[in-house]
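Researcher: Watch the backbone:
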Amino acid sequence: MGEEILNQGTEKLNEILDELNKREALKKELKEISSNGKKLERTLEDSKKEYEKAKIDDVAKAKEEYISEEVTKIGQTESEIKKIKSNRNKAKQRGIKDRITNETKDLVNENREYHRTIRKTLKENDLPSYCDSSWFYTMYCTQGMKQVLIKMAVFIFTLIIIPLIIVKCTDVFWFFEILLFIAIDVIVITVFITILLLTKDKDNGTLEAMREYRDKISDNSEKIKAIKKNIKLDNDESKYNLDSFDDEIQKKSDELERLHEERDRKSEEFENEKKEDILKSVSEKYEPIISSNNDDIEKNKTELEKKNEEITASDKIIAEYGEFIPENILTCDGIKKLITSINEGQAKDIKEAIELAKK
């Protein structure tokens, strides 16, 4: 059979070329079918994902609508409770403020009288009113370890720390930095001495005499501070008339509890009676789509199998030609060259054309 084919001409070569072209076309179609199959698989996966998402979303949406009335009322009630609690706290703070005012009234009035006496005495002795202050007695009539330490801290801060900070913030030659440091200290000391001259030089013992009142003011201030602290730490709220707020809060809390129970009851009712209908509706929508996707995939698989069978048959035919035609020539281009050799008279049959191609 091989010798018989080799003795034939272009007609047989055209037949072989057709078979080669047919196989190439079949391979191209196989590739397209395979690519389409992958697209169908992805479409099926997307449909399944949409189906699962729709089940979750539709059920959640339906459930939200089913219990929406209770959820809205719960939000409103919680907001009302929050507002009542805010008003209650404001009323309590007003009560605390009034209680502090009442319980410290005598001490405050006493301190006011002390201040009035001190300033009257200062005025009679031609001393400035700022002498009636804690800072003045700390800086100019220092007494006790506490005031000594405060005074030292003030001098360190004003004579060292503040000048250093200002100098560091400037960008000048070091000599001018020293001058700036000294200038600041001079200003601070000048202010201190000026205040001292305005008071100490005019003082004939008045400041020391007024210390008794300053000490009483300080003691009363400590008592006022202690009273304020005790009142704020007192957990007994019965003095502030908050019962009406508490009754309203309790009433709203009971209503809130009832709404929560009703919401939970309807949620359970939805799960037991309504949810299945929602899932069935979603299933009826998506199952035909998924079924159609599966049918398309099965059709694609059938086409793929059929095309593979056709390619196998074509490979078998071409393999028979391969028994007498070299593999490197048994291609579309190779067969075309054999046909050209015979048509141009370079060879009279396939055998001679192959020999010529080998050379």
Summary: The first helix runs from residue 2 to 6.
